[in-house]
Amino acid sequence: MSPPASPLRRFATAVIVHANYAQFGPAEVTANPCVSSRMVLWCKAGTGEVTANGMTFPFEAGRCLLLPWEHSVSYRASKDDPFLLAGIHLIPRHTRGRPVAFVVAHHANHPLAHASFRRDMEIAEMAGVKAGWLNDIAMTHLFEYIVNIFIRGLPPEWLARQLAQQLLGELVRWQRHHEEPDSSPAPELERMRQYVLARLHQPLSLRDLVEFSRLSPSTVGRLFRERMQMTPVAWIMLLKMERAQMLFRTRRLSVNEVGEQVGFSDPYYFSKCFKKATSVSPREYRKKNYWI
Asked: Can you tell me the distance from the alpha carbon of 256 to that of 166, in angstroms, rounded to the nearest whole number?
């Protein structure tokens, strides 16, 4: 008996054509009237508003949107804490044999906007604008991995296609999971997540989460074990190290300054924790990922 066909074959002709970070300035506004791609958009830091197909969403760290083909989108950063956004653009159907242009058509008059070899496909799980919170650790890592592939340089076509298949497969799984009646994140956990994201520049501990949530230490620990598959302290450290990596990629900051921005007063302890999380020292990471 032959093995069952891979569900990813459904997306065999998909390709990712662009992925990047975008740091907005205070009160900066920009708009794209007709984007010929499906887009994954999420907020890494800061605040603002995103309007997609006429619907406006407050945006802060962890907020995520899945945008349909030929969507309109505008961005309005806050004045005091402008957001840092990340996005991935993919073409669900790109004819094989046609060269892949790693370009996104952002308006109807763009030469690629109506190209017959770049088309959408029906994906019931991703119909319309989908809004949610990026609280799936594996999904977060996949998103970040794709963006970093493109930051290093344009990938070969075979890799851009493989990443598109994996991304679409995971997005479909993610949407199905979040449509199940009891799969939504626990409200207490979501409140703690927002509390931590707003205070990554401070030292944080289990005691802080307990005092904020007014839950017992055992209840907080159980929530994290069941929903995040890790301890609260490990989760806080993960978020701090992810923020540190983002700062190294997008800011002109020293190792000491990055450590202070993620709540470490001791630069040696910060370096030790960073190397444990990434397998390289902060200086090595900054050298390999410097943003300019």
From this structure: 37
